[in-house]
Design goal:
The chain is mainly α and 168 residues long. It has helices spanning 9-33, 38-64, 67-70, 76-85, 90-95, 100-111, 114-130, 140-148, 150-154, 157-161. It has one domain (9-161). Bound molecules: fe (ii) ion (FE2). Fe (ii) ion is lined by residues 20, 23, 51, 54, 119.
């Protein structure tokens, strides 16, 4: 079989960070759209802070990897997913949001998207290599729990639709 040049681990981290940054900007935007509703604003702010932690974590893991690992080829299937994540219409979706239910639906899809698959893959594959050099890495469980808790905190779709997004 012909040997083809594969993307490096470094490139995988770069793609993953770019996607997490897009999601981070998305949640920051939601915090603004619902700034008039303290509970909703607080919720989106927490999601934003989680995404900030994800970006930081990717940087930490990457910088703790031995350079030989960084330059080695990454799993091509996961690189392909990471590349596709950068084509997700996150900014267009943001512009279509009219109320809290629209926001929730998109956030829910994002949290179940391949952005999460790539992030989880990186944590599982690369953290064991650098574990001794990193201390705090329990950022994922709370994050997923938060979005699952959303209905309990903000009611059903009808109630959520009554909380309107405000663009100024
Ligand atoms: Fe994330």
């Amino acid at each position: 079989m012909k040997e083809t040049k594969r993307d490096t681990v470094e490139e995988l981290f770069r793609l993953a960070r770019a996607a997490e940054t897009e999601v981070r900007i998305f949640y920051r935007g939601l915090r603004g759209l619902f700034a008039h509703d303290p509970a909703a604003a607080d919720f989106w702010n927490r999601m934003y802070e989680d995404e900030t932690a994800h970006c930081r974590e990717l940087l930490l893991i990457h910088s703790a990897l031995p350079s030989a690992v960084r330059r080695s080829p990454a799993d091509p299937v996961i690189v392909e997913k990471a590349r596709r994540n950068l084509k997700l219409p996150i900014r267009q979706d943001f512009r279509s949001i009219r109320n809290l239910d629209d926001a929730y639906t998109i956030a829910h899809d994002l949290e179940n998207s391949e952005v999460m698959t790539v992030f989880t893959f990186i944590r599982e594959k690369y953290i064991p290599l650098v574990r001794r050099r990193l201390f705090t890495l329990s950022v994922l469980e709370d994050h997923l729990g938060r979005i699952m808790d959303f209905s309990r905190r903000f009611g059903d779709a009808t109630e959520r639709r009554m909380i309107r997004a405000r663009r100024r």
